[in-house]
Amino acid sequence: MLSINKKCITAIYTGLVFGLLSVNLQAAEDLPLEIDADTSDCGTNLENCTLTGNVVIKQGDANITADRLFSISENEWELSGNISIDKTGMNISAKQAKISLADRQLQSFTLVGSPVSFRYLVGENSKANGQANNISFNLNTRMITLDGDAQLLESGNELKGEHIEYDLDAERLKADNQGKGDGRVHLIFEPPSKTKTSNSEESEN
Predict the structure, then answer these.
(1) pLDDT: which is higher, 11 or 205
(2) I want to staple 194 with a disulfide (CB 3.0 to 4.6 A). Which of 136, 164, 190, 201 is the partner?
């Protein structure tokens, strides 16, 4: 195991909301960064380092798995194969991803797939799902960006657009279709009775 340890000073950010979603995500400063893999070809730092086979990256409440990790530099990594990113209440799956770091702290994720899929737990009795060709999540600005056939689905309510941005601090959602298709963003809101039925069915699954 390659383990990079620094003095722990934890900063916790709570109360993040994703549209109708309520998710607690934690960003942290100066947490240990731990990496496991079947094989590694690395020097004493993380520059030009290749790890393959059951790669696992852990920092705080973030748990990332992939088939392969290649570090272009200490602050820029590329992941490939069966990528899964888990944080409290959230899972994102993709085929390819880039990770940006600063001082060995996770900063942002950019994931690519056909499509990239994600799931959120909404409270105790509901789930939310979404997908896009590309999803970016910045831990510092707390901005989530979805590009390419983006859609969000929660409790029967659906939002579709080519480009969706969500500012977690301001709790503001922006979407546009970037001139594609009919050039319009589509929102579908189910009646309250159907929404309750959808929540009940999701809680049973």
Answers:
(1) 205
(2) 190
